[in-house]
Design goal:
Elements: H1 11-16, H2 19-29, E1 32-35, E2 43-46, H3 49-57, E3 62-63, H4 75-78, H5 104-112, H6 118-123, H7 125-139, E4 144-146, H8 147-152, H9 154-164, H10 171-182, H11 194-218, H12 224-230, E5 232-233, E6 236-237, H13 240-271, H14 273-281, H15 286-297, E7 302-307, E8 311-313, E9 316-318, E10 323-327, H16 328-331, H17 366-383, E11 388-389, E12 394-395, E13 404-406, E14 408-410
Helix pairs in contact: 7-9, 7-17, 9-13, 10-11, 10-13, 11-12, 11-13, 12-13, 13-15, 13-17, 15-17
Length: about 425
């Protein structure tokens, strides 16, 4: 079938057009769609909620480790995906939590999970709220700001960097390298071509984090890097590659996904004034509003798996070695699961979205992301409730991250709190 001229391998398509029209068509006409784009090989695009859950549940039948979890964004970044010509120490497959299969994945997850459990996250609330208030205090008097750079980015950056024990002087480097690693197809973040930008971004993070990890091995603290650097599985310490890549993973995950949920959520509240007013008048709706923003924004647009055996999905023959791309953004608008799925509803309930994935790879930082999103929304509503757009919203060129680069806004309250 034709998908209206859309190329799901083209990051620019996601920055300049609405992918949801294409996903709606695929759900209706060809939910397990053999997709051909700019890459050297095709892949299966799964767009229905139940089909994604089927694959997410089968972590052994559909591998995260074999080819990675993100669809290559260009032929340049596709090169070396099979490991040929790529030194083992530079590959995250089999060492980074999200790109590791069971049973190693299970051991890494158990090791890393303690700081992200509900109770430790609850204990962070006071500090996180203080950070949010300081951020709004700084932007409010000016009456305008770039909401992405001046608000949405700063809260998750502060939280994850403090959790990891990264010095404040290095936070800007984390932001730069994170943008290069995940936004490598976007000209704004490129250094050379896309492949070079991606490589430099990941390498910058990996080298920096490993240097800190070596220090924490000698002088451990209570931070996340110390936990990773000194952690053991079955009585054995993690390898240098596991330490480096997993520290890198937490920086990127902590920075990128939550900032995009915050900025995308505030954008949709601005665009739907009735929903904004409803939430402002009834703060008890905040938990359901958070879940609806996660569903609506789907910060990680897709996750990729590789079939480890021949099988069948909705009658289509999937062969061993095939790439299977799980479009979270589509499943979260599946009309069979979410009534009136294209309507943003801060009171939606139930809301069994899969913005955090599903099954064994369910996002480890989900509780923390929800906390950060709730606090950011609450402070915006209390302090700058008349927020509105003040220019063009610019989206990230990426088929993986549903990101907003710039979102100019204005407001008149000047930081005066409302009830």
């Amino acid at each position: 079938m034709e998908t209206r001229g859309a190329d799901l391998t083209d990051p620019e398509f996601f920055a300049t057009r609405d992918p949801h029209a294409v996903f709606k068509q695929l759900r209706a006409e060809d939910p397990v769609h053999w997709t051909v784009g700019r890459l050297s090989r095709g892949f299966w695009s799964l767009t229905k909620y139940d089909d994604l859950q089927q694959v997410y549940r089968d972590a052994r039948g559909y591998s995260s480790e074999r080819y990675g979890t993100g669809l290559p964004s260009s032929p340049e970044t596709e090169a070396g995906r099979d490991g040929q010509g790529v030194p083992p120490e530079h590959r995250a497959n089999g060492t980074m939590l999200v790109i590791t299969d069971p049973p190693r994945h299970d051991g890494l997850r158990r090791l890393f999970r303690s700081p992200f459990l509900p109770r430790p996250v609850v204990l962070m609330e006071s500090k996180a709220r203080e950070i949010v208030r300081e951020i709004i205090d700084e932007v409010a008097p000016a009456g305008r700001c770039d909401f992405v750079l001046d608000v949405a980015t700063r809260l998750p950056m502060a939280i994850i960097c403090e959790m990891m024990g990264i010095p404040r002087a290095d936070w800007s480097s984390m932001f730069k390298w994170g943008n290069m690693a995940l936004g490598h197809e976007d000209p704004e973040f490129q250094v050379g071509n896309a492949a070079d930008t991606q490589r430099q971004g990941f390498q910058g993070l990996a080298d920096f984090c490993f240097k800190l990890a070596q220090e924490r091995r000698r002088h451990p603290g209570s931070d996340l890097i110390s936990l990773i650097a000194n952690g053991e599985i079955d009585g054995k310490k993690l390898t240098d590659s596991e330490v480096s890549f997993n520290c890198q993973m937490f920086v990127i995950a902590g920075l990128e996904t939550t900032r995009n949920a915050i900025s995308g959520g505030v954008l949709e509240l601005i665009r739907t004034p009735a929903q904004f007013a409803r939430l402002a008048m009834n703060r008890a709706l905040m938990p359901t509003a958070v879940e609806e923003i996660l569903r609506w924004t789907s910060p990680i647009t897709h996750i990729m798996r590789t079939a480890m055996r021949d099988g069948e999905i909705r009658g289509r023959k999937v062969r061993e070695g095939d790439w299977v791309v799980l479009w979270n953004a589509s499943a979260n608008r599946d009309e069979e699961v979410f009534p009136d799925a294209d309507r943003f509803d801060v009171a939606r309930k139930p809301n069994y979205h899969i913005a955090f994935g599903f099954g064994e790879h369910f996002c480890l930082g989900a509780h923390l992301a929800r906390l950060e999103l709730r606090l950011a929304l609450d402070e915006v509503i209390r302090r700058i409730p008349d927020i509105e757009l003040d220019g063009e919203v610019k989206r990230l060129s990426s088929n993986l991250v549903a990101g907003i680069k710039h979102m100019p806004v204005r407001f008149k309250h000047g930081g005066r709190q409302v009830a």
